[in-house]
Design goal:
The complex is a heterodimer of chains A (361) and B (389). With 361 residues, chain A is α+β, with helices and mostly antiparallel strands. Chain A is built from eleven helices and nine strands. The mean pLDDT of chain A is 96. In chain B, strands 1-4-5-8 form a four-stranded mixed sheet. Chain B is globular. The chains are: A alpha+beta (361), B alpha+beta (389). The structure holds flavin-adenine dinucleotide. Flavin-adenine dinucleotide binds next to strand 1 and helix 11 of chain B.
Chain lengths: 361, 389
């Protein structure tokens, strides 16, 4: 039992954090909002040099051979700077190709992903829109029964404009053919469920980073801005709002880290664990957006100030790979209906929980 | 990251489960807030101690079994799973004990820990005074050195189980000219010395569970000073870290309460009683939050086992468990509907009484161990770096 990260894992996180702090500035993020694809091949190749797209790809296929417990730490950093390059889409695609019974697709695509030469994406019925479908070299989507692996030429995309300038969403249509079919029935559904969980985990981890950044922006501003002759951060109304967000962030982190372990090990309670992580992390980030805005006052309500960059990120992460309604329904299915495995950590629930024979104290 | 138990931990869990199943009293003990219940709980502690389970992470020589904190968590899980009695000496074993372990002399460890582990000596916490609540640095009670004794004068209040306890640990001003955090010392005092008057105070539930303690020229041997003279504030902060951050409220307490809430939800639905829209979501959320608290505690223990310390993050913890406890109980009372107000002695109360008792106790959570407003101040100033003034 060791619920923490190794020095190597934390070192890699720090490396990525330092890199992103220098390269992925708010100005750069805003610049990307204005470009046609919103995605930068140059930045992608820099990320590839760090090994990020191929993080989950095995070393023999040119990747880093790491797992989701490594990935979440980096996703947190990606959320901290609001980077929207298709790392989540690709991680979800890698996870899916790796799990196929037939290894030929994985053998064909994963080395290219690791080299930075291919981007993947996966559509899931939980959302009618697919992020980053326009830059995906291979998209995996369901026709209702079977999963299909579709090269870009086989897709008909209808762009949808998101309120978050970083988010690029598409309605995807395609003709299902025998040659594109990669899984059917039960197997297809299991793959789809695993893909959703991996995507939700990545979104939750990014939400942690966005939350932390929104708190940092507000704490920094509150230490500088003066009213009534003192820094506004000395007012308890301000302190306590921020402290509440910090509490939420702390416990959301615990859920996200456990969910990472559950995805990496395909644990029995994986889906419920991921739903808890998604709910907790997105709620923390959404609250952080509101509080950060409030602490900034009118300046935070301007387009020029950066609060909305992360706040809108938090909104779109909340909707990605299952919105709150989806995940709360799954949580209740696990905890209340027991139609999904929900395992409490350590403590095992006896048949009937005894009323404590206790005085309270 | 490795979230599996070792075979040794699994074996320990089995052993503890079997022992608890064989030994936990079948019927609830009377509340330890009344004299009879206090003694019944002490008798239970004695049995627990004889079984070797009183304080598993303590060294064997002090009455423990030399386990690490992970085994302690496993034990706590089994303890709540078995529905075992509340710990009457919690101020001793969970707060003072770890503090003595950290700053006590070898003589103090040998003198105090074994009798604490067996609950032969039950401890009360003497921090609050009439004019020093949240502002603990305003403590006025004095302890003036006179030869090999301290002479104590002043008044402590709100000492939980102080009406029945044998010893009290507290902060006293050893330098009468000092102010605020300086000049305070951490002193251990028997409660039966000449000059001590203990006056019980009834809690909101009518039980005499608190006490005021008056000191009138009480002579306490100087060897009962814990840590250095004048360093009492820092020693007390270590104790507060254990209280807020780890030991006082172990996660299994909330996991078991959340599991009872899920059962109550099902029972209510099965009976055909009305259930508010949104209740499913609330119940699931309580379970999820209890889970978060558990996971976070395992992170803390992992950090402590690799040499880390409990710091200001303990304040995050204090807020989370105390507010979660209220959430769970409020959901339960809402499920109980018209039965929610029944005193446990009512014939129709059934399970309702224990939920009401639990709720009333949960309401004190945001007050004791440092109010949640104070914890929010600490988080804002020490974790987020906001200005004090
Ligand atoms: C069930 C229970 C058991 C207890 N057991 C013990 C015990 O065993 N030993 C012991 O020594 N004490 C004990 N206490 C006392 C407890 O530690 C104090 O009640 C607590 O520290 C608060 O002090 P106070 O009651 O004087 O409230 P006050 O300090 O007067 O606070 C009243 C209100 O003002 C708020 N407030 C005060 N200062 C600030 C500030 N700076 N910023 C924002 N808000 C502020 C508080 O948050 C609170 O809401 C117990 C209390 C309870 C309820």
């Amino acid at each position: 039992m060791e619920f923490g990260f190794s020095e190597d894992q934390l070192l890699l996180q720090q490396t990525v954090r330092d890199f992103l702090a220098g390269e992925c500035t708010p100005e750069w993020v805003r610049g990307q909002w204005q470009t046609e694809t919103g995605r930068s091949p140059e930045f992608w190749s820099q990320l590839s040099e760090l090994g990020l797209p191929g993080l989950l790809v095995s070393e023999t296929q040119g990747g880093l051979g790491m797992d989701e417990t490594d990935l979440v730490l980096l996703m947190e950093e990606i959320g901290r700077v609001g980077l929207a390059e298709p790392l989540t889409a690709t991680a979800v695609g890698v996870g899916l190709l790796r799990s196929l019974g037939d290894a030929s697709l994985a053998d064909a695509w994963l080395p290219k992903v690791a080299a930075g030469d291919a981007i993947l994406a996966v559509a899931h019925p939980a959302s009618p829109f697919v992020a980053d479908a326009h830059v995906a070299d291979l998209l995996i989507a369901s026709d209702g029964d079977s999963l299909h692996a579709l090269p870009r030429a086989a897709l008909r995309l209808e762009a949808q404009t998101s309120n978050d300038g970083s988010q690029r969403l598409f309605r995807v249509d395609f003709d299902a053919r025998d040659e594109t079919r990669i899984a059917t029935g039960r197997e297809a559904r299991a793959l789809e469920a695993a893909a959703l969980d991996r995507g939700a985990l990545c979104s939750a981890a990014q939400a942690l980073g966005a939350c932390d950044q929104l708190i940092a922006l507000a704490a920094d501003y509150a230490g500088q801005r003066e009213q009534f002759g003192v820094a506004i951060g000395s007012f308890q109304a301000v302190k306590h709002m921020l402290a509440d967000v910090r509490v939420k962030l702390e416990y959301a982190r615990s859920h996200v880290y456990r969910a990472a372990n559950s995805v990496a090990n395909d644990a029995t309670g994986r889906s419920v664990d991921v739903s808890m992580a998604k709910i907790a992390a997105c709620e923390a980030a959404l609250l952080a957006g509101r509080v950060s805005l409030q602490v900034h006052g009118a300046i935070g309500y301007t387009y020029e100030q950066d609060v909305h960059v992360w706040m809108k990120r938090a909104w779109s992460l909340d909707l990605a790979f299952g919105d709150a309604v989806f995940h709360r329904a799954r949580l209740a299915a696990g905890v209340i209906d027991r139609s999904l495995p929900a395992e409490s950590f350590g403590y095992s629930h006896p048949q009937r929980v005894p009323t404590p024979t206790a005085g309270l104290g | 990251m490795d979230l599996t138990y070792t075979p040794e931990q699994d074996a320990f869990r089995k052993e503890a489960r079997a022992w608890l199943e064989a030994n936990v009293p079948a019927a609830p003990l009377p509340s330890f807030d009344i004299a009879e219940g206090f003694e019944a709980h002490r008798a239970w502690e004695k049995k627990l101690h004889a079984g070797g389970y009183a304080m598993v992470p303590w060294p064997v020589e002090y009455g423990g079994r030399g386990s690490d904190l992970l085994e302690w968590l496993v034990f706590e899980e089994e303890y709540y799973r078995a529905g075992a009695p509340g710990r009457v000496n919690q101020n001793g074993i969970f707060l003072l004990g770890p503090t003595i372990m950290e700053v006590g002399t070898p003589e103090q460890k040998a003198r105090f820990l074994p009798k604490m582990a067996s609950s032969e000596e039950v401890w009360a916490q003497g921090w609050s005074e009439p004019n020093a609540g949240s502002d603990m640095a305003a403590i006025q009670s004095t302890a003036i050195r006179d030869g090999d004794h301290y002479v104590i004068n002043g008044q402590k209040t709100w000492a939980s189980r102080g009406a029945y306890a044998h010893w009290l640990f507290g902060l006293f001003r050893t330098d009468p000219d000092s102010t605020r955090h300086k000049g305070l010392s951490f002193i251990l005092s028997p409660l039966d010395l000449p000059g001590i008057t203990v006056r019980p105070i009834q809690k909101i539930n009518g039980k005499a569970a608190f006490a005021e303690v008056f000191f009138d020229d009480v002579r306490v041997p100087a060897e009962n000073l814990l840590g250095e003279e004048g360093a009492g504030w820092n020693v007390a902060m270590a104790t507060a870290g254990f209280e807020r951050g780890l030991m006082l409220r172990s996660p299994a307490r909330f996991q078991s309460t959340a599991a009872r809430l899920v059962d109550l939800y099902h029972a209510t639905v099965e009976r055909g009683d009305p259930v508010a829209p949104g209740m499913r979501d609330r119940v699931a959320r309580c379970w999820m939050d209890a889970e978060a608290y558990t996971l976070n505690t395992y992170q803390t223990v992992t950090r402590l086992l690799s040499g880390g310390k409990i710091g200001a993050e303990a304040s995050l913890n204090k807020i989370f468990w105390s507010e979660l406890d209220i959430e769970i109980h409020e959901a339960a009372l809402e499920l109980l509907g018209p039965r929610a107000e029944l005193d446990p002695r009512s014939p129709a109360a059934g399970d309702a009484g224990s939920w009401l008792d639990g709720y009333i106790f949960a309401l004190s959570g945001p007050i004791y161990a440092g109010t949640n407003q104070i914890q929010r101040n600490i988080i804002a100033e020490r974790l987020l770096g906001l200005p004090r003034k």
